[in-house]
Design a protein that fits this description.
Blueprint: E1 2-6, H1 12-16, H2 30-46, E2 53-59, E3 62-69, H3 80-83
Antiparallel strand pairs: 1-2, 2-3
C-alpha cells in the first residue's frame, strides 16, 4: 500500500542521501554520500522557517521516494511577474 506523509526524523537519512541508502555507488564513496547527506539535511532544516516541506512516499512502510514542497514566493523556477 502506498502512503505519503510528512518527513519524520527517521526519514532524514533517506532524504539526505537522495534515496541512495543501500546502493553501491560507482562515482562516490559511501563516506562522501554520508557527508553530503548531513550537509543536505542541515540545509533542508534551515529552510523550514521559509515553509519548505518534504513528503516521503512509502510502500508497505518502506520509503521509496520523496518530494520537496516550496512556497511559490521562494520558488527559484517561477517568475512571479508572469503570474500576477
Amino acid at each position: 500500500m502506498l502512503t505519503i506523509s510528512d518527513m519524520k526524523d527517521g526519514d532524514k537519512y533517506f532524504v539526505g542521501t537522495c534515496t541512495h541508502v543501500n546502493d553501491t555507488p560507482e562515482c562516490l564513496s559511501r563516506w562522501e554520500i554520508n557527508y553530503s547527506a548531513k550537509r543536505r539535511i542541515a540545509w533542508l532544516q534551515s529552510l523550514y522557517p521559509k515553509r519548505v516541506r518534504r513528503k516521503v512516499a512509502r510502500i508497505n512502510h518502506n520509503p521509496v521516494g520523496f518530494i520537496h514542497l516550496l512556497p511559490i514566493e521562494i520558488c527559484p523556477w517561477v517568475q512571479l511577474e508572469r503570474i500576477y
